[in-house]
Amino acid sequence: MKRRIVFVLIAVLVCVGAVSCFTSYTPMPDTAEIVDVLVLHVHAGDTAEDIAGQVDTNAVCELLPQIRARRLPSYHRGISEDCYQIQVVYGGKTVCFSLGEPSYAYEVTESMSPWVHKLSGSEKLLALLDKQ
């Protein structure tokens, strides 16, 4: 009987752990800790234009909490051909959101790891940036 209870408890813990790993999360749950915002429009994957002066950065910050990210990172190489990159300082860390096809987020570090978190729910933010 004790073995069954232990087995059931282990199975429940494994299931809860798997669910928490595979469900998405919000990289920025609020806008209170955003210190700096840089918005770039990347053309053809190699040239970037700073459009922070043309974009309402307050509106960008308000839409960032609506973006969801996968908890488990995936391997990614290169930048999309035509995308927007939003770089913010949040909670003392620099986070970059690349919005295009595909959309992903990563923490900016010295090593610049190719592991990124794929994003969903960025349609409103992309529409705002496309208007500019």
Q: Could you estimate the helical fraction of the residues in percent?
A: 25-40%
Number of separate helices: 3
Order of helices and strands: HEEEHEEEEEEH
Query: Whole-number average pLDDT?
Result: 83
Gyration radius, in Å: 18 Å
Task: Tell me the distance between the termini.
Answer: 66 Å
The geometry reads as elongated
Q: How much of the polypeptide forms β-strand, as a percent range? A: 25-35%
Structural class label = alpha+beta
Tell me the total number of β-strands.
9
Oligomerization state: single chain
Query: Low-confidence parts lasting 5 or more residues at pLDDT below 50?
Result: none
The major sheet is characterized as: 9 strands, antiparallel
For this entry, give a set of tags:
132 residues, 9-stranded antiparallel β-sheet, alpha+beta, 28% helix, 3 helices
Q: Would you kindly provide a written description of the structure presented here, covering whatever features stand out?
A:
The structure is a single chain. By secondary structure, the chain is an alpha+beta fold. The protein is built from three helices and nine strands, in the order H-E-E-E-H-E-E-E-E-E-E-H. The protein has helices at residues 2-22, 57-63, 123-131; strands at residues 24-25, 34-43, 47-50, 68-70, 74-75, 83-90, 93-99, 104-107, 115-120. Strands 1, 2, 3, 4, 5, 6, 7, 8 and 9 form a nine-stranded antiparallel sheet that branches. It is elongated, with a radius of gyration of 18 Å. It starts with a helix and ends with a helix. The mean pLDDT is 83.
